[in-house]
């Protein structure tokens, strides 16, 4: 790599880490997301021109902030009407009061927590919250966000413009909610991050089962949140859950890209460092107060990761944790997962009975994991004809080609057992 290429790589690395922090600080200062985004991009362009030649400055965040702030002031001086509008917005932002800001080491306060809550504000459509979080906190470009959600770039660009317009027109405040609002608002922030992770863990469509880059981006966002809210149990629980699930990434697919079930995974390929980190965070998520849904889910994931195999997994404890989760965040999907755990604790007949009780749930109709779980339990009970029918239904519902190929193989093993040995 030549000197200029090395310089560009350094700029890109700094940009990745600094963009969200810079953008948040500028929104806090000027009260306008469009202006902040534009001058952030201009500051990065200036860095791309100068840093490969002059070198990355000792305090790159402060350099970018100074450059962006000057560009914003210049723009406001040229547009007095725009400046008057921003003055009103700035007064409203100031009324919101100060928020905790992490020490970044270069004199630039970390205002990203405000940006997290703005991007995940309940006034915004649910489908826009994750996109904004990726765009403004993860630093992905609009084409990258479009790829993440598997939609055309113009479609995603319109969604982002629409969401920013909503923030402006609804005067959504750029602030951290007060103590009385936080319990109601924080779950939306956590859900926005977790939805990014789940799309990376199990892609909703496409040629690949996993989107590792997306899962890792969600974990990076989780680490940022953990740094900004180090004492919050559910923030610790979310990060723990993502780390413990992502630790199995390398063992979840075979050489052909098809899924490998938990019982068949080579556990020596699980990432022990992530498991150790995640397990430590589980302790933090379960201490200091009643546990939340993410903390309980992380505890379940830890029991899976710490077991030598499926047979020695503590299924009674997992079922007990699902019982707790059903009191904290009851849903048909949680009930489905509990039924699968019961099947592994008490046998397939017990699990199938619970699935039959759930068959009337509208959310589970056409839900691939439900149909697959039922097919697997029917197969284990020797009810091959019913299992084959369920596998055919699952194949029609499976969202990715690797999953469809895996299910076709399981169906073939039932219909042509001699040929698949």
TrEMBL record:
<dbReference type="GO" id="GO:0006352">
    <property type="term" value="P:DNA-templated transcription initiation"/>
</dbReference>
<keyword id="KW-0805">Transcription regulation</keyword>
<dbReference type="InterPro" id="IPR013325">
    <property type="entry name" value="RNA_pol_sigma_r2"/>
</dbReference>
<dbReference type="Pfam" id="PF04542">
    <property type="entry name" value="Sigma70_r2"/>
</dbReference>
<dbReference type="Pfam" id="PF20239">
    <property type="entry name" value="DUF6596"/>
</dbReference>
<dbReference type="InterPro" id="IPR046531">
    <property type="entry name" value="DUF6596"/>
</dbReference>
<keyword id="KW-0804">Transcription</keyword>
<protein>
    <submittedName>
        <fullName>RNA polymerase subunit sigma-24</fullName>
    </submittedName>
</protein>
<feature type="domain" description="RNA polymerase sigma factor 70 region 4 type 2">
    <location>
        <begin position="119"/>
        <end position="167"/>
    </location>
</feature>
<comment type="similarity">
    <text>Belongs to the sigma-70 factor family. ECF subfamily.</text>
</comment>
<dbReference type="GO" id="GO:0003677">
    <property type="term" value="F:DNA binding"/>
</dbReference>
<dbReference type="InterPro" id="IPR013324">
    <property type="entry name" value="RNA_pol_sigma_r3/r4-like"/>
</dbReference>
<feature type="domain" description="RNA polymerase sigma-70 region 2">
    <location>
        <begin position="15"/>
        <end position="80"/>
    </location>
</feature>
<dbReference type="InterPro" id="IPR013249">
    <property type="entry name" value="RNA_pol_sigma70_r4_t2"/>
</dbReference>
<dbReference type="InterPro" id="IPR036388">
    <property type="entry name" value="WH-like_DNA-bd_sf"/>
</dbReference>
<keyword id="KW-0731">Sigma factor</keyword>
<dbReference type="GO" id="GO:0016987">
    <property type="term" value="F:sigma factor activity"/>
</dbReference>
<dbReference type="Pfam" id="PF08281">
    <property type="entry name" value="Sigma70_r4_2"/>
</dbReference>
<feature type="domain" description="DUF6596">
    <location>
        <begin position="185"/>
        <end position="283"/>
    </location>
</feature>
<dbReference type="InterPro" id="IPR007627">
    <property type="entry name" value="RNA_pol_sigma70_r2"/>
</dbReference>
């Amino acid at each position: 790599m030549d000197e200029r290429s090395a310089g560009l790589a350094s700029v890109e690395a700094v940009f990745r880490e600094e963009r969200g922090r810079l953008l948040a600080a500028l929104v806090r200062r000027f009260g306008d997301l469009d202006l902040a985004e534009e001058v952030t991009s201009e500051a990065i362009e200036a860095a791309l021109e100068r840093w490969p030649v002059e070198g990355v400055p000792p305090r790159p965040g402060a350099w970018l902030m100074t450059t962006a702030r000057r560009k914003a002031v210049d723009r406001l001086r040229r547009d007095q009407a725009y400046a008057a509008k921003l003055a009103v917005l700035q007064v409203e932002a100031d009324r919101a009061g100060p928020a905790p800001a992490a020490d970044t080491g270069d004199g630039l306060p970390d205002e990203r927590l405000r940006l997290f809550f703005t991007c995940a504000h309940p006034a915004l459509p649910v489908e826009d919250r994750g996109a904004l979080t990726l765009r403004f906190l993860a630093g992905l470009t609009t084409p990258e966000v479009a790829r993440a959600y598997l939609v055309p770039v113009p479609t995603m660009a319109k969604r982002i413009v629409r969401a920013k317009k909503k923030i402006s027109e609804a005067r959504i405040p750029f602030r951290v909610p007060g103590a009385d609002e936080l319990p109601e608002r924080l779950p939306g922030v956590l859900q926005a991050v977790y939805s990014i992770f789940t799309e990376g863990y199990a892609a909703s469509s496409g040629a690949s089962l996993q989107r590792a880059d997306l899962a890792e981006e969600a974990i990076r966002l989780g680490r940022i949140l953990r740094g900004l809210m180090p004492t919050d149990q559910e923030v610790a629980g979310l990060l723990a859950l993502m780390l413990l699930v992502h630790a199995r990434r390398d063992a979840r697919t075979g050489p052909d890209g098809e899924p490998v079930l938990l019982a068949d995974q080579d556990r020596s390929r699980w990432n022990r460092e992530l498991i150790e980190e995640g397990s430590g965070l589980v302790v933090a998520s379960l201490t200091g107060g009643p546990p939340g849904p993410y903390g309980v889910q992380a505890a379940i994931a830890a029991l899976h990761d710490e077991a030598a195999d499926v047979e020695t997994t503590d299924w009674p404890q997992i079922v007990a944790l699902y019982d707790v989760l059903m009191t904290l965040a009851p849903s048909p999907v949680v009930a489905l997962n509990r039924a699968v755990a019961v099947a592994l604790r008490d046998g397939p007949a017990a699990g199938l009975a619970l699935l039959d009780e759930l068959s009337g749930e509208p959310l589970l109709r056409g839900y691939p994991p439900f149909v697959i779980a039922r097919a697997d339990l029917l197969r284990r009970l020797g009810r091959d004809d019913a299992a084959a029918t369920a596998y055919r239904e699952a194949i029609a519902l499976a969202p990715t080609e690797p999953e469809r190929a895996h299910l076709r193989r399981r169906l073939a093993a039932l219909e042509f057992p001699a040929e698949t040995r």
